[in-house]
Write a structure and sequence with these properties.
- The protein is mostly helical.
- Helix content is 64%, strand content 0%.
- It has 31 helices and no strands.
- The longest helix is centred in the N-terminal third of the chain and has 26 residues.
- The relative contact order is 0.08.
């Protein structure tokens, strides 16, 4: 007999308490979406307008053909998780195993009276295929969790950090699944569970049938009987099999199909009598159920909340008009996206400026760190130094859209970066390298030479980033055809002599080829480059023009920043 979930007032009270905490937490998290001020002009939009805009958007979607697109997003992006599949096969396999396995355990086992019992009228948890599937789904979760642990050990570093939320998620899953297997294994081996079952359902037949049934269950089901004091012969087993077929087979399949739990029952066989006397099955059952309740109560405050936030993020961003941004709807959407982020590091792994992080060591350059900083800015007063660091990381982004394309949660990261830039500018932290334009290319070259000579030739730290500008083989093929200059929108836009580009892209390649890197660094072209990749895409020699200019810009920023700060600290125009 399956022990009912609400079999005691204690468990009933715990269930309703955990449900209440869970519902409160979910409502609290969703309420925060409409209360947080994220992005420029967010403080000018009232909470009522945000709620009204969200309600109008929902109604507009419900009564439109967008429902077909929602159905497509539900199948491919949410259930099949194709967004993860496009970036990492192993990670997709891990997520699919845990998501599918735990979901099936939830509906087919935890909610069996409400779901499985209604769909399958003759349902018993001890019948196949349900018994087999329960073990299979549990194994799927275990394998998925094992892959998660392997990835976090194998790929340690800035791209994949393991914090409390990650440890808690894996630990609570491990406790729930492990105790689930152990409860079933303890029940299989328990004589008391067998006696309770036969006492409730077994009708006494011919003399000796009960002994034969025990002998059969001992051999085939793995039950350990302390009271079975007969020699088990093939004849007794055969008779027990017939009794089992008449009395038990309609609600109990063979325990061997519960391939994990049955092996646990076999493993504890030497101590099964002692465990049965201590009612290990009941204690394990309470641990299993209470751990489920703890997980349920903590659900909205843990990393598991992304199971709610991610689907909403994918659907909202899949349907939203990215060209016309409604500020009343944008503020709660941006807040919701912060909850959808799991800090998986996919955005940072595909970030086109990630190599710059290796050079500057500013964590705010990496998208996975910037998304957390957006949340901190919205709810915390930060120092000027912190905001300066954040501004530096925010404006280095080239808005290439790669991070948004690969984000498994469907977060519109470009919108987050652009809105945070505007917000930083509003509070006095604009583009951090505007001071670079105080001098032209030749003046910066002189300042670099004088500064390094005053520091006994101390050069910038090397070996922390890709070295395109230092590798002559990269730009040596340049034939000075001016194709890059002809297609450059920055050159085309600067036609007047006052704002004209001083050194065009093909001249920058020539300066690098001549070893005049310092002169190239101070070029106005380097700092005005829009990173549109037109020059690189049209170069007949296949030179990485845009990437060279971008690396040059960030190398220059590190060196010029030191020189400029030294000058300001010494309160002189020139540090030398």
């Amino acid at each position: 007999m399956v022990q009912p979930l609400l079999g005691s007032s204690f468990l009933t009270a715990c269930l309703y308490m955990s449900l209440a905490v869970c519902m409160f937490g979910i409502l609290f998290r969703i309420g925060r979406w409409f209360a947080m001020d994220i992005g420029p002009r967010a403080t000018r939009v009232s909470h009522a307008k945000r709620i009204s805009a969200a309600a109008r958007g929902i109604m507009k979607t419900v009564f439109s053909t967008a429902l077909l697109k929602i159905f497509k997003l539900l199948i491919f992006d949410i259930l099949l998780q194709t967004r993860i599949l496009k970036t990492d096969l192993l990670r997709w396999f891990m997520h699919f195993l845990m998501f599918f396995g735990f979901t099936m355990l939830l509906f087919m086992h935890a909610l069996d009276e409400l779901v499985t019992g209604k769909v399958f009228p003759g349902y018993f948890s001890t019948l196949d295929p349900f018994q087999f599937l329960r073990n299979l789904f549990g194994v799927m979760v275990v394998i998925g969790a094992g892959i998660a642990v392997y990835r976090r050990i194998r790929y340690r570093g800035p791209m994949l950090r393991t914090g409390f939320a990650d440890r808690y998620a894996l630990i609570i899953l491990a406790i729930i699944i492990t105790t689930g297997f152990m409860v079933e294994g303890a029940k299989i081996a328990s004589e008391r569970v067998f006696d309770r079952m036969t006492g409730d359902f077994y009708q006494q037949g011919r003399p000796g049938d009960d002994v034969a049934l025990k002998a059969f269950w001992s051999e085939e089901y793995g039950t350990v009987f302390n009271s079975l004091n007969v020699d088990i012969t093939p004849e007794i087993i055969l008779r027990g099999k017939e009794v089992n077929k008449r009395k038990c087979a309609s609600c109990h399949s063979g325990s061997r199909t519960a391939f994990v739990s049955f092996r646990i029952a076999r493993a504890i066989r030497p101590g099964a009598v002692s465990l049965d006397s201590a009612r290990a099955d009941i204690w394990l059952y309470y641990i299993h159920v209470l751990s489920c309740f703890v997980g349920l109560a903590y659900f909205p405050f843990s990393k598991f909340f992304h199971l709610i936030a991610d689907p909403i993020s994918i659907i909202v961003n899949g349907l939203s008009d990215k060209k016309h941004v409604n500020q009343a709807a944008a503020a709660p959407r941006r807040a919701m996206e912060l909850d959808a982020c799991t800090a998986c590091g996919t955005c940072s792994r595909y970030c086109s400026v990630e190599p710059v992080y290796r050079m500057m060591r500013n964590r705010e350059i990496q998208p996975m760190n910037k998304i957390r900083t957006v949340q901190l800015i919205a709810g915390k007063n930060m120092s000027g130094a912190e905001l300066q660091t954040i501004s530096e990381g925010a404006f280095i982004c080239t808005t290439c859209f790669k991070c948004t394309e690969v984000c498994p949660a469907g977060i519109n990261l470009q919108d987050q970066w652009l809105s945070s830039r505007e917000a930083l500018s509003e509070i006095g932290y604009p583009i951090p390298h505007v001071w670079v334009k105080k001098f032209n290319a030749s003046e910066w070259s002189d300042r670099i030479r004088n500064y390094e000579s005053s520091r006994n030739g101390v050069a910038a730290v090397k070996g922390r980033y890709y070295n395109l500008t230092g590798d002559s083989d990269v730009f040596a093929p340049c034939i000075q055809c001016q194709t890059c200059t002809n297609v450059c929108p920055v050159v085309a836009a600067r036609t007047d002599s006052k704002n004209a580009v001083d050194i065009t892209p093909q001249k920058i390649m020539n300066l690098l080829r001549l070893g005049l890197n310092d002169l190239a660094m101070g070029s106005r072209m380097v700092w005005d480059c829009a990173t549109c990749y037109q020059c690189q895409e049209n170069c007949p020699q296949g030179i990485k023009v845009t990437e060279i200019i971008y690396e040059l810009k960030n190398r220059a920023y590190v060196r010029f920043r030191t020189i400029d700060r030294t000058a300001r600290n010494n309160d002189t125009e020139d540090p030398c």
